[in-house]
Design a protein that fits this description.
The protein is mainly beta. Helices cover 4% and strands 43% of the residues. The strands form three sheets. Strands 3, 5, 6, 8, 9 and 11 form a six-stranded antiparallel β-sheet that branches. It has a five-stranded mixed β-sheet with strand order 1-2-4-10-7, with no helix packed on it.
Length: 210
């Protein structure tokens, strides 16, 4: 999917605010292929939308997530601007490795479909696009100043179908939040994101098309 990089001057960027400690390591040295039905304690993060113009991305790296288990990962967006906003979030997932302080190296041959992002029961979010490595979601309601979304993530995990070639790999999750002002939002979304949005009479976003 080719997401346009042109943004209106009124498009609002994000400053990432860490709301809780991250970086939980789930030690697992060898993948057995046996499903593990485990819910792991919740981690909570937040992105705060302000009046800047360039989007920012929060990147999370997970060491050796246990196959078949799920980490409950809450991720919300808060409007810290002084005007109402519509927001969208892009989630990119990948396999890779990181040696010491060196930068993360994505493995382009690894199967992103084996990384599971739970977005099936999200409240208020529209999944507009999804493939093996990327998901794009739009919050269906305008955010008033000071208001927060519901969580854009239900959890993250690794399929029980992985084999030993993934045993030493990390999972990277990049979450990017963007926003446009609610005034003339249909035009703003078209110009900023290259999409055609549909709205109900009360301003609720009902659909998004390329």
């Amino acid at each position: 999917m080719n997401i346009r990089k042109k943004y209106l001057a009124l498009a609002l960027a994000v400053t990432v605010v860490l709301a809780a400690a991250i970086g939980m390591t789930l030690a697992y040295t060898q993948y057995s292929g046996t499903p593990v039905n485990t819910q792991i304690s919740t981690q909570s993060l937040s992105i705060s939308l302000n009046s800047a113009e360039v989007p920012q991305t929060k990147t999370l790296t997970y060491d050796s997530l246990v196959p078949g288990a799920q980490l409950n990962q809450n991720f919300t967006v808060t409007n810290s601007a002084n005007t109402a906003l519509y927001t969208r979030v892009t989630i990119d997932k990948s396999w890779g490795s990181q040696n010491g302080a060196a930068s993360y190296q994505k493995d382009f041959k690894a199967d992103g479909k084996l990384i599971t992002v739970d977005a099936d029961k999200l409240d208020g979010w529209i999944v507009a696009y999804e493939d093996s490595e990327q998901m794009v979601l739009y919050y269906s309601r305008p955010l008033a100043a000071g208001e927060s979304t519901t969580s854009v993530l239900g959890g993250i995990g690794v399929s029980s179908d992985v084999d030993n070639q993934y045993a030493d790999k990390n999972v990277e999750l990049s979450v990017t939040a963007e926003a446009v002002q609610s005034f003339d939002a249909k035009t703003a979304m078209r110009s900023a994101w290259g999409v055609t949005a549909s709205f109900a009479g009360d301003g609720t976003l009902t659909g998004v098309a390329e």
